[in-house]
Amino acid sequence: MSDVVVTGRGVVTSLGETADGFFDALIGRRSGIADGTGACTEFDPETVMTAKEARRSDRVAQFALAAAQQAWEDAAPEGIDPERAAVVVGTGVGGLETMERNTLAWLQEGDRAVSPMFVPMMMPNAAAGLIAMRFNIQGPGWSIASACATGTHAIGEATRMIQRGDADLVVAGGTEAALTKVCLAAFQRMGATSRQGISRPFDAQRDGFVMGEGAAVVVLESERHARARGAHVYGRVAGYGASNDAFHITQPDEDGRGAIRSMTRALEDAGAQPGDIGYINAHGTSTPYNDKIETVAIKAVFGTNGSVPPISSTKSAIGHLLGAAGAVEAVASLGAIQHGVLPPTLNLTEPDPECDLDYVPDGPREAPGLQAVLSNSFGFGGQNATLVLTGA
Amino acid sequence: MPETTVPTEDQVLARVREELAAIKVPGAEEATMDTPWSELDVDSLDLVELVKALEDEYGIQISDDELKPIKGVGDAVALTIRLAETQNA
């Protein structure tokens, strides 16, 4: 059994800026999507940083710092050895708004119009750096970029850091703030996003994902460290698996081989059998490809004879948070275990014959004995990651 | 059009305060000629923005060498006035 436990959680999403509030909204069948995006319209960076800090950080880092502040206060790790603490917080695209604004300024006015804060605001590791400064984290710090699998890779790699003995405590997660006009246009041009502006994973009428934004950060600790300081334990990162499709830069392997390897490795790492998993938090993007192929892959791992556990997609409620998605979904998965209830898949009204599993369209659904959840993330680049999360 | 006449100390001090406030430096409005950067928590990246604002406002160019000994508001104001006198002469 893994000795890595979760002692703190923080989220910033279009459905709330606390872990508990976010999960309550999910099981309340609320949607954070409006006008075709899942924007964090209530977010005010100056609730967690000074005006100067806010001006000198991109929205992508502001989300991460806000989520990390919640997670840190939740875990309350006072008095720990700062050299034994680490941070791994990733992003799919980094400070895109900063990139676009400075590029436009440079085109219009030349070199002197470029902000001296451009690099520290745009760089993908900015969030991890700011979090380390805020909480005096002096052990290893870095960021991960694996597109839509970033958040899951971050939690998985942070788990490995603790297992290797690199750190006793790791602040881990993902963040994204890519609702810029250029990025929205880019995903539209490649046919990835929904022209209807509706996130309807596994539905016959699905036509792409809806872009969201936000962050989720968790505090992971070795169980020994957490118990020694009397920390509250929300759950355990029981297993982590990762793989490459090695197939196409955006399109998933048609047989789901990468996804199958990722799920199988996570189960093996957890020492679990498919039958031990009570719920799957799917990648479930609402793209025609992903949902069909993820279904194929899940069947390959879990069987086709009614042995597949219930599945749902958090993206049906908040859209696709790209690099933050896996971390947000880990928090949702922990909530399902903690409360014994499965969040629904929203907007699934017309079943797709090729997506013929139980996606909890009528949820929330009581699951009082839920002990283990498998959470998938599959990124552009063919990079896949899966977590197995269990109760405390 | 940049200002070509030599500004007064009060004018430059006001401009420095205005720019520091624009870049959200706490205490910018209360800064005096005696306030050092350390008291305002102004760092090298803030100075890049302040220098650009003063250059644009007064039609001057501030070199890195000239900036090195500038340790606070009074130094910046004095340098700006000196450069406005010499460079716009």
Please, could you describe this protein's structure?
The complex is a heterodimer of chains A (392) and B (89). Chain A has 392 residues and is of the alpha/beta class. Chain A contains 13 helices and twelve strands. In chain A, the strands form two sheets. Chain A has a ten-stranded mixed beta sheet, with helices on both faces. In chain A, strands 9-10 form a two-stranded antiparallel sheet. Chain A is globular and about 65 Å long. The N and C termini of chain A lie close together (12 Å). Chain B is 58% helix and 0% strand. Chain B contains five helices and no strands. In chain B, α1 packs across α3 and α1 packs across α5. The relative contact order of chain B is 0.22. The model of chain B has no long low-confidence stretch (mean pLDDT 94). Chains A and B meet through α2 of A and α3 of B.
Characteristic key phrases:
heterodimer; A: 392 residues; alpha/beta; ten-stranded mixed beta sheet; 18% strand; globular; B: 89 residues; mainly alpha; 5 helices
Summarize the structure.
The complex is a heterodimer of chains A (392) and B (89). Chain A is an alpha/beta fold.
| Strand percentage of chain A | 15-25%
Strand order of the biggest β-sheet of chain A? 3-2-4-5-1-6-12-11-7-8
Mean pLDDT of chain B: 94
Compressed to H and E, one letter per element, the order of chain B equals HHHHH
**Relative helix content of chain B:** 55-70%
Helix count, DSSP H or I runs of 4 or more residues of chain B: 5
Shape of chain A: globular
Largest sheet of chain B: none
Given helix and strand content, the structural type of chain B is mainly alpha
The helicity of chain A comes to 25-40%
Strand content of chain B is under 5%
The separation of the N and C termini of chain B measures 16 Å
- List SSEs of chain A in N-to-C order: EHHHEHHHEHEHEHEHEHEHHEEEE
Number of strands of chain A: 12
Q: Give the N-terminus to C-terminus distance of chain A in angstroms.
A: 12 Å
The counted number of beta strands of chain B is 0
Determine the most extensive contact between two protein chains.
A-B, 11 and 9 residues
